[in-house]
């Protein structure tokens, strides 16, 4: 099943590129299994998330549910990317709210177990799926809002930064940021570019080098998130925020989004294979594997 999903993901890259600037309408036939929208019905087949599209508002809510921490494994990334692709293909959908179904955690970022002790081939396949998820979200024609209802380190922060707008639960126990350097790894250029596009160059420089994780209040101060609300109001605030974006004609908003993001997207598209081989050679180094091992042990010790 997961392999079939991944194959489908690979085939749909061209569809994603067409989706820029409003060319996506009426392309439902591109999929072997077009999704049928029923008001308030869940149409996701994956067990790791639910996707509910309200056809009266055009807003879908994607709730990530991959216990214990929504870490982004190869299969989970593929399911997320395909779920977004299905929404993209659906004329009735104009926006998506991404949130977590797990308590206290939005996403723990990339699944460290996908990067530790794996073959170079598997690491390459994993990295392609990370790229694909980023490309799909960053280039989405939809209005994307992250409703961050828990901690969101590294890849979790990246996922939220691909969205057009971020609302976080105002809970000082949660944190968000690109903390890669703390694991002894390096955020690749397109993580860095997404961060720079979100918070500006100087803040990104400090945040990335120190691998900082911010409290919601501090994340608001630096512009990593746009709004803080009490947790129980998160999804309702996200759907309300969506109304402001829906008030703008879709084509004007989509072309503007494309103009803002296209240079960053093109940079990865033109270096995709090199980026994969850089990742594979970096992550499979003995020294990096040792850092990851230590980090995993510390995570486990923290619990004991
Ligand atoms: C030259 C450059 C070229 C190319 C680029 C090269 C490299 C770039 C490479 C990689 C980029 C990576 C980006 C990432 O996303 S790395 C992942 C970073 N994530 C983290 O650091 C988060 C770690 N986790 C936590 O901080 C916490 O778990 C928490 C705050 C999310 C939740 O805390 P809790 O106390 O609620 O839960 P825990 O007890 O800590 O965890 C439960 C369980 O889950 C396991 N786990 C946690 N996070 C991960 C993860 N990211 N991947 C896999 N597994 C994870 C944790 O170990 C526990 O497992 P056990 O129950 O003990 O088995």
TrEMBL record:
<dbReference type="GO" id="GO:0005759">
    <property type="term" value="C:mitochondrial matrix"/>
</dbReference>
<dbReference type="InterPro" id="IPR001753">
    <property type="entry name" value="Enoyl-CoA_hydra/iso"/>
</dbReference>
<comment type="similarity">
    <text>Belongs to the enoyl-CoA hydratase/isomerase family.</text>
</comment>
<dbReference type="InterPro" id="IPR018376">
    <property type="entry name" value="Enoyl-CoA_hyd/isom_CS"/>
</dbReference>
<dbReference type="GO" id="GO:0006635">
    <property type="term" value="P:fatty acid beta-oxidation"/>
</dbReference>
<keyword id="KW-0413">Isomerase</keyword>
<keyword id="KW-0809">Transit peptide</keyword>
<protein>
    <recommendedName>
        <fullName>Enoyl-CoA delta isomerase 1, mitochondrial</fullName>
        <ecNumber>5.3.3.8</ecNumber>
    </recommendedName>
</protein>
<dbReference type="Pfam" id="PF00378">
    <property type="entry name" value="ECH_1"/>
</dbReference>
<keyword id="KW-0007">Acetylation</keyword>
<dbReference type="InterPro" id="IPR029045">
    <property type="entry name" value="ClpP/crotonase-like_dom_sf"/>
</dbReference>
<comment type="function">
    <text>Key enzyme of fatty acid beta-oxidation. Able to isomerize both 3-cis (3Z) and 3-trans (3E) double bonds into the 2-trans (2E) form in a range of enoyl-CoA species, with a preference for (3Z)-enoyl-CoAs over (3E)-enoyl-CoAs. The catalytic efficiency of this enzyme is not affected by the fatty acyl chain length.</text>
</comment>
<keyword id="KW-0443">Lipid metabolism</keyword>
<keyword id="KW-0276">Fatty acid metabolism</keyword>
<comment type="pathway">
    <text>Lipid metabolism; fatty acid beta-oxidation.</text>
</comment>
<comment type="subunit">
    <text>Homotrimer.</text>
</comment>
<keyword id="KW-0496">Mitochondrion</keyword>
<dbReference type="GO" id="GO:0004165">
    <property type="term" value="F:delta(3)-delta(2)-enoyl-CoA isomerase activity"/>
</dbReference>
């Amino acid at each position: 099943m997961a392999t079939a999903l991944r194959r489908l993901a690979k085939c749909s890259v061209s569809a994603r590129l067409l989706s820029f600037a409003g060319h996506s309408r009426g392309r439902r036939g591109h999929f072997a299994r077009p999704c049928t929208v029923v008001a308030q019905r869940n149409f996701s087949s994956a067990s790791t998330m639910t996707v509910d599209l309200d056809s009266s508002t055009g807003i879908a809510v994607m709730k990530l549910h991959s216990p214990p921490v929504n870490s982004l494994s190869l299969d989970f990334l593929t399911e997320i990317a395909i779920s977004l692709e299905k929404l993209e293909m659906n004329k009735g959908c104009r926006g998506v709210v991404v949130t977590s179904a797990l308590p206290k955690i939005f996403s723990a970022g990339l699944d460290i177990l996908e990067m530790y002790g794996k073959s170079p081939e598997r690491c390459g396949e994993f990295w392609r799926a990370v790229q694909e998820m980023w490309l799909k979200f960053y280039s989405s024609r939809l209005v994307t809002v992250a409703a961050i209802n828990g901690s969101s380190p590294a890849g979790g922060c990246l996922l939220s930064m691909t969205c057009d707008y971020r609302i976080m639960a105002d809970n000082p126990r949660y944190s968000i940021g690109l903390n890669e350097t703390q694991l002894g790894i390096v955020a690749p250029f397109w993580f860095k570019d997404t961060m720079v596009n979100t918070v500006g160059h100087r803040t990104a420089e400090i945040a990335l080098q120190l691998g900082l994780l911010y409290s919601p209040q501090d994340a608001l101060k630096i512009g990593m998130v746009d709004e803080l609300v009490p947790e129980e109001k998160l999804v309702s605030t996200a759907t309300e925020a969506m109304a402001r974006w829906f008030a703008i004609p879709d084509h004007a908003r989509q072309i503007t989004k494309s103009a803002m993001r296209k240079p960053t997207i093109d940079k990865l598209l033109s270096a995709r294979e090199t980026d994969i081989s850089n990742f594979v050679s970096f992550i499979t180094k003995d020294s990096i594997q040792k850092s990851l091992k230590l980090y995993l042990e510390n995570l486990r010790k923290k619990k004991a």
